[in-house]
Amino acid sequence: MPRPRKCRRVCLLPESDLFGPLKLQKPDAEIVFMTVDEYEAIRLIDLEGMTQEECSEKMDVARTTVQRIYNDARNKLAMSLVEGKLLQIQGGDYKLCDYEDSGCGCKRCCRKK
After folding, report:
1. Residue pLDDT, tens place only, 81-102
2. What is the strand order of the sheet 86-89 is part of?
3. Domain for residue 44, yes or no?
4. Is residue 25 part of a domain?
5. Residue 45 predicted with pLDDT over 90
6. Number of domains within the chain
7. CATH no. for residue 102?
């Protein structure tokens, strides 16, 4: 029996959760689903410039877990861009960061107050 999945810490939910081509050819276009924790890994590593180790500390998971999450997220981004599929961000095993409790010092957490 596998052990239960650990919730990943996420500082903020994305402001927009659906992305894709401006001109959809088909109304029933395939949707690629990205989890909130995958979004957070992309944000921390690519936007904030953190290493995978720093990201793992922020998200409160092992570095190897961050590496897997990040690779999955990059594959989904590439599929959406190259194949023109919609990308929707939803779900996943995560808990929202509470600035007072975690003291993570994230600027985004401070803005929530």
Report:
1. 998 889 999 988 888 877 555 5
2. 18-19, 86-89, 31-34
3. yes
4. no
5. yes
6. 1
7. 1.10.10
Residue 68: which domain range?
30-112
DSSP string, the chain: -PPPPPPEEES---S--EE--SS-S-TT--EEEE-HHHHHHHIIIIIS---HHHHHHHHTS-HHHHHHHHHHHHHHHHHHHHHT-EEEE---SEEE--HHHH----HHHHHH-
Closest-CA residue to 61 (of 71, 50, 72, 52): 52
Residue 64 lies in a domain: yes
Distance CA 89, CA 23 (A): 20
Lowest mean per-residue pLDDT among 1-10, 25-34, 101-110:
101-110
Distance CA 55, CA 88 (A): 22
